[in-house]
Amino acid sequence: MKKTTIVGLILGTAMCLTGCGQSAIETDTLSISREGGAAYTIISDFSDPAYDLNELMDMAKEEVQDYGTGVQITGATVEEGVLNFAYAFDSLSDYAEFMDTSCFYGTVAQALKEGFKSDTKLLSAKKGSTVTIGDEVLKKYQLFVWNEDVAVRCDGNVLYYSENLSLIGKTDVQPAGESSGPYYVVYK
After folding, report:
1. With contact defined as beta carbons under 8 Å apart, do 53 and 83 qualify?
2. Which pLDDT tens digit goes with each residue over 37-61?
3. What CA–CA distance (Å, rounded) separates 6 from 132?
4. Following DSSP, what letter does each residue of 6-65 receive, concatenated?
5. % of the chain surpassing 90 pLDDT
6. Domains in the chain: boundaries
7. Beta bridge partners of 165
8. What is the DSSP secondary structure assignment for residue 149, as one 8-state letter?
């Protein structure tokens, strides 16, 4: 079975468990690190008796081996019919390639140099007011941009986030309702 099929199976059933008001620990979450690494946890309904954790692990291990270096499986458990499956990535580039997606990680200044729109509106995590990504005060902070319907846990406090996200605590954001990416989070 191809990687996209396995990930699709896991992600497809995970949509049943993701919803408004749930904490990031209860939904698919990408945790990003300033050192460039990432951890991706998939939470999925695994209550169907036809599902087999050993079979899933074998398929996932094969995909990781086919990918090569840069990704590891760090855990897989099923409790009360819920799968918690975790990957660790050496870099966000490995994450993007393995998951067949794109993302950006760097400073706001780097993003602007790479052509991100300076008029993208962001909400303040503290005040609820809006700023644009081109505001001079933001340029020194970290920026992560992604497209997938996953929560993101930053390794610093969220300062600003795009209007299509919900803030969950000091370090976590998740897509709001039926929104779609790209999603932006600025943090320190």
Report:
1. yes
2. 999 999 999 999 999 999 999 999 9
3. 38
4. HHHHHHHHHTTT--TT--GGGS-EEEE-TTS-EEEEEEEE---TT--HHHHHHHHHHHHH
5. 75
6. 3-98, 103-187
7. 175
8. S
Q: What is the pTM (predicted TM-score) of this model?
A: 0.83
Whether 46 contacts 12, CB under 8 Å: no
CA distance 166 to 164: 7
Distance of CA 29 to the CA centre of its chain: 5
What CATH number has the domain spanning 3-98? 3.30.70
pLDDT over 60 (residue 3) = no
**Long-range contact set of residues 67-73: C-beta below 8 Å, sequence gap at least 24:** 67/3, 67/94, 67/97, 67/98, 70/94, 70/97, 70/98, 71/95, 71/98
* Residue ranges of E strands in 28-164: 29-32, 38-45, 71-79, 82-89, 103-107, 121-124, 130-132, 142-146, 151-153, 158-162
- 30 beta partners: 40, 152
Work out the number of other CB atoms within 10 angstroms of the CB of residue 125: 18
What average pLDDT does this structure show over 13-31?
54
Residue 5 has pLDDT above 50, yes or no: no
The string of pLDDT tens digits covering residues 125-134 is 998 799 999 9
